[in-house]
Design a protein that fits this description.
single chain, alpha/beta, seven-stranded mixed beta sheet, 16 helices, 18 strands, globular, disordered N terminus
Length: about 475
């Protein structure tokens, strides 16, 4: 049965609210949340993943129709364990209050101030299907590190994984610490309407608008991790062989079903054929066959496959040229699999849907350019992307791209790798998201930065003339303060 048709039963808003309230009450009773309690929850999360990695890989593969177990470990499970290790190394440092400078003359009179990072309470996590373990439990670890409790809405497109994760979390955690909810769109809608202390959603921009609107009713702070069309720029002096090998690896991973996947290429007009040939050669080397290849992941379901094929058909009808990368010359029409070969599209333009919509699959459009100013103008004329990738060696060209384009994150001379660095923030900008998490940025995202000011014993208001009745001292203080 397709994952799309296997959604778990819906969970009512009342049921979700009861679980939320139980976590909220437990959170308040525990304050302040110690370093030990935070790390215990983080370690249990990681140990749960380590103990059950084979079962998790099998469940994810079943939900996809087939997914590489190696890629599940690399992209889903290793990230969670790495995130836990990063907290083990750094959390004590992040938790320390930050001293801040006091304004003159208060600093001379004994006043002091600091920022204390306090947990917000209960964090809701709405996780997507493409990396169901990573994008559920990476935010959970960040929330635990900040001292919060966690409730996860698991994607209905991964029903087997959802049921397994729900069972495992119940074994490793009390429901007042962390709990998992499965269910379909109605459950998701109800989940987004809960008055969370913080809500993080990972998914598409269309649904994100509904999530944000629901959160606004409770003035819930949100982190949105979306996607969009991440451009991959092959610079004028790029090593084409190295660039195409790395682009092929990033694009074919998870069959392109990655929010940070290279969405389209921008290549010098005189290197177009060399780049396309390099992509074909690299894919053929990495995946000599596709249908029975355990390393190559399936498209999640038939509906998504049909959407991808419609993008190709639309582009071809509007004048695009296709290169289907099918190294084993396999017959994809004679199989029940939802696997798709990579389709490289040339002669693309913005009238084509493939250049308007996030692709999220094994399709790679190629646009040509004559100078980097043209590239910069094109990128800036479109929505801010979640990721941007540049291949090239000239430092001034790299600097030009970094300075003149805006994106959630950048990897230079590779693709996607910036998300694997735990000390770097992961997040989008504008249509590709808001807020960021992982590392110290995630700690702050899920914390409330509380200002604490301590007044000295001396009566500051009286000395400064701020205590009525106002007079000459007041005038003198205001004149001093109203100067640059």
């Amino acid at each position: 049965m397709e994952a799309l048709e296997a959604a778990a039963g819906e969970v009512s808003k009342d049921e979700i609210m009861k679980l939320f309230q139980a976590q909220r009450d437990a959170f308040h009773a525990e304050l302040p949340v110690s370093f030990g309690a935070r790390m215990d929850r983080i370690n249990r999360t990681a140990q749960m993943i380590i103990d059950h990695q084979d079962d998790l890989c099998e469940a994810v593969s079943s939900d996809f129709g087939h997914r590489s177990g190696v890629q599940t470990v690399m992209t889903d499970l290793m990230s969670v364990v790495g995130h836990a290790k990063d907290h083990k190394k750094n959390l004590k440092k992040w938790m320390r209050p930050e001293k801040r400078k006091m304004d003159f003359p208060l600093n001379l009179l004994g006043a002091s101030g600091q920022v204390e990072y306090q947990p917000k309470g209960v964090v809701g996590v709405i996780a997507p299907w493409n990396f169901p373990i990573n994008l559920a439990f990476d935010p959970a670890i960040g929330a635990f590190g900040a001292g919060n409790r966690v409730m996860i809405k698991f994607s209905e497109f991964c029903p087997e994984t959802g049921e397994l994760v729900k069972k495992l979390v119940a074994e490793y955690f009390s429901p007042e610490e962390m709990t998992v909810i499965t269910g379909g769109p109605e459950t998701g809608k109800s989940f987004s309407e809960i008055p969370w202390d913080h809500l993080i959603f990972t998914g598409g921009g269309g649904i994100a608008k509904h999530v944000m609107a629901a959160a606004a009713q409770n003035l819930t702070p949100v982190t949105l991790e979306l996607g969009g069309k991440s451009p991959t720029i092959v610079g004028p002096d790029a090593d084409v062989q190295k660039a195409t090998q790395r682009i092929a690896m990033g694009k074919m991973m998870n069959a392109g079903q990655i929010c940070l996947a290279p969405d389209y290429l921008l290549v010098p007009h005189d290197k177009e054929e060399a780049v396309v040939s390099g992509i074909v050669a690299s894919v053929s080397e990495q995946y000599p066959t596709l249908i029975a290849n355990d390393d190559y992941t399936s498209v999640i379901n038939a509906r998504h496959k049909d959407r991808l094929q419609s993008l190709i058909d639309d582009a071809l009808a509007k004048g695009a040229k296709q290169t289907i990368v099918n190294p084993g010359d396999e017959d994809f029409s004679n199989t029940n699999s939802n696997k798709m070969p990579l389709t490289v599209l040339q002669d693309v333009n913005d009238d084509m849907r493939v250049m308007q919509e996030e692709i999220f699959g094994p399709i790679l459009p190629v646009k040509t350019y004559r100078n980097l100013e043209e590239v910069i103008d094109y990128v800036n004329d479109h929505d801010r992307p979640l990721g941007l990738y540049y291949f090239g060696e000239t430092e001034s060209d790299k600097r030009k791209i970094l300075d003149k384009t805006i994106s959630g994150g950048v990897t230079v001379n590779d693709v996607i790798f910036h998300i694997a660095q735990h000390d770097l923030p992961f997040g989008g900008v504008g249509p590709s998201g808001m807020g960021a998490y992982t590392g110290p940025d995630g700690f702050k995202e899920f914390s409330h930065a509380k200002a604490v000011y301590r007044q000295p014993k001396i009566n500051i208001a009286k000395i400064a003339g701020f205590l009525p009745p106002y007079g000459a001292t007041t005038d003198k203080t205001m004149k001093q303060q109203m100067k640059l």
